[in-house]
Amino acid sequence: MNAGGIMIDIPQVITIASTDASGGAGINADLKTFHNQGVYAATIVVGLTAQNTYGVQDQYPIPAKFILEEFKSIADDLDIKAAKTGALLDEVRVHAVAQGWQSHNLGKLIIDPVMVAKGGSHLLSDTAIDTLKTELIPLAFLITPNLPEAEILVGRSLKTDQDIIHAAMTIQNMGVKNVLIKGGHRADLKNEFADYILYADGSSEWLTMPGIKTKRTHGTGDTLSSFITANLAKGYDLKDIMPVAKKFTYEAIRQTINVGHGHGPLNHWVAITMGTEDNK
Ligand SMILES: Nc1ncnc2c1ncn2[C@@H]1O[C@H](COP(=O)(O)OP(=O)(O)OP(=O)(O)O)[C@@H](O)[C@H]1O
Ligand SMILES: Cc1ncc(COP(=O)(O)O)c(N)n1
Q: Using a 6 Å cutoff on CB, does residue 221 contact ligand 1?
């Protein structure tokens, strides 16, 4: 009921992750990307971090019981179409999120398996990796590890393109439908580099782009996975989203903003929308 006004339907998404006090990564980057893409965003806060563009100074995990209450509050009211996870900190939090998801399915699940921040701080304990593999990954529509995260998930080093292709298959066999292995860590090594995606139907592609020589890449993975989450919620197909998600992240890195003195944050104000002439 909205007498005299109008009612607008809007796709609803959620980020299940940790905050970044400096605003460049984590839940903060997710919310800015969601807003940019015109979706309504809710949050399940799993942890808080005291961090800046130099690194993570401290972490504060939210109790598992409270995380489950957050799940219930959202599921009792909102109509979430897609959810993404970010830094989950440890085994207890990963288990709580898997438990929350099984009780309250919130649409398509996208896992960004954040393990180590750009400054080198651990945002997922080593003991959480098995819980991630056995409890959370089998529930997901898409997982988006960067190269070091993919190496940890498969337990071997990934040097060649062939290694990456095999790793994506190994991860898909853990029960997740689609696997994106991000190549940002090779961006300094080559002028052109690529992300690799293995789709649910067995097809795959290399998404190639020029590497930008910069250290202002705080929150690149969050930005990419949030863009994908927003547009899955809008009903777009993953294969159509991927090139545009890459373009959004690329422009958000390229059109840099002057914030912080370490690994600076991205520009979440760039205008790139699915379905426009520019992106066909
Ligand atoms: N220097 C760069 N130039 C161009 N694209 C980049 C660069 N760095 C990262 N990207 C792109 O940004 C996206 C995120 O990649 P990356 O490998 O940095 O993820 P990530 O390490 O998980 O990010 P983060 O942990 O910072 O959130 C990928 O699509 C990647 O190709
Ligand atoms: C709360 C939180 N989530 C995710 C990241 C990863 O981003 P990056 O590797 O660019 O620091 C982060 N630093 N902090």
A: yes
Q: Is the ipTM reported for this complex over the cut 0.90?
A: yes
**Nearest ligand to the C-alpha of residue 246?**
1
Query: What local confidence, expressed as pLDDT, does residue 280 receive?
Result: 54
Lowest mean pLDDT among 139-153, 158-172, 188-202, 221-235: 188-202
Q: Check if the beta carbon of residue 80 is closer than 8 Å to that of residue 14.
A: yes
Average pLDDT over every residue of 216-236: 97
Residues within 6 Å of ligand 2 by CB: 18, 20, 25-26, 49, 86-87, 114, 117-118, 123, 218-220, 222
The CA-atom distances, in angstroms, between 82 and each of 25, 37, 259 are 19, 14, 30
Domain that holds residue 251: 12-144+215-274
- What is the total count of domains within the chain? 1
In a domain? residue 50:
yes
Most confident of 108-122, 126-140, 178-192: 126-140
Distance 271 CA to ligand 1 centre (A): 19
Compute the average pLDDT of residues 249-258: 96
Domain at 46, CATH number: 3.40.1190.20
Atom of ligand 2 nearest to the CA of 47: 1
Domain-embedded: residue 77 = yes
Supply 192's token pair.
């052109």
Q: Is the CB of 254 under 6 A from ligand 1?
A: no
| Token pair for 47 | 């942890």
Instruction: Say whether pLDDT at 223 is over 80.
Output: yes
Q: How far is the CA of 67 from the centre of ligand 1 (A)?
A: 28
What six digits make up the tokens of 129?
């990796």
**Contact assessment for residue 168 and residue 204, using Cβ atoms and an 8 Å cutoff:** yes
For residue 152, being part of any structural domain is answered with no
In a domain? residue 163: no
Query: Alpha-carbon distance 228 to 272, whole Å?
Result: 13
